[in-house]
Amino acid sequence: MSNRIDVKKTYKLFINGVFPRTESGRTYEVKSAKGSFIANPCLASRKDLKDAVVAARAAHHGWNKATAYNKGQILYRLAEMLEGRRAQFVDEIIAVTGATKAKAEKEVSESVDRLVWYAGWSDKISSLSGALNPVAGPYYNFTIPESMGVVAAIAPETPSLLGLIDVIAPIIVSGNTLVVLASSKAPLSAMSFAEVIATSDVPAGVINILTGMKDEIAPWMASHMDIDGFDITGLATKKHAEIRTSGAENLKRIFAFKSHDPARILAFMEAKTVWHPIGL
Amino acid sequence: MSFYGLVDGTDTSLKNYLGSLSGVDQVGADARAAMLATRSIKTTSKRWAIDMAISMVDLTTLEGADTVGKVQALCTKAVRPDPTDLTVPSVGAVCVYNDMVATARKHLDLVGGQHVGVAAVSTAFPSGRASMPVKLRDTRDALDAGASEIDMVIDRGAFLSGHYIDVFNEIVAIKELCGTRAHLKVIFETGELVTYDNVRKASFLAMAAGADFIKTSTGKIAPAATAPVVLVMLEAVRDFYSMTQQRIGVKPAGGIRNTKDAIKQLVLVNETAGPEWLTPSLFRIGASALLNDLLMQRMKMDTGYYASPAYVTID
Amino acid sequence: METPVSFDYASAPESRAIVSIKPKYGHFIAGKFVAGSKHFPTINPATEEVLSHIALAGKAEVDAAVKAARKAYTTTWSKMSGKERGKYLFRIARIMQERAREFAVLETLDNGKPIRESRDVDIPLAAAHFFYHAGWADKLEFAGLGTSTKPHGVAGQIIPWNFPLLMLAWKVAPALATGNTVVLKPAESTSLTALLFAEVCQQAELPAGVVNIVTGDGSTGALIVNHPGIDKIAFTGSTEVGKIIARAVASTPKSVTLELGGKAANIIFDDAAIDEAVEGIVNGIFFNQGHVCCAGSRLILQENVADEVLEKLKVRMAKIRVGDPMDKNTDVGAINSKEQLAKIIELTAAGDAEGAQRWSAPCELPSKGFWFAPTIFTGVTQAHRIAREEIFGPVLSVLTFRTPQEAIDKANNTPFGLSAGVWSEKGSRILWATQQLRAGVVWANTFNKFDPTSPFGGYKESGWGREGGRHGLSAYLKGVGHE
Question: Disulfide-capable partner of B296 in A8, B307, C322, C330 (CB 3.0 to 4.6 Å)?
Answer without folding.
Answer: B307
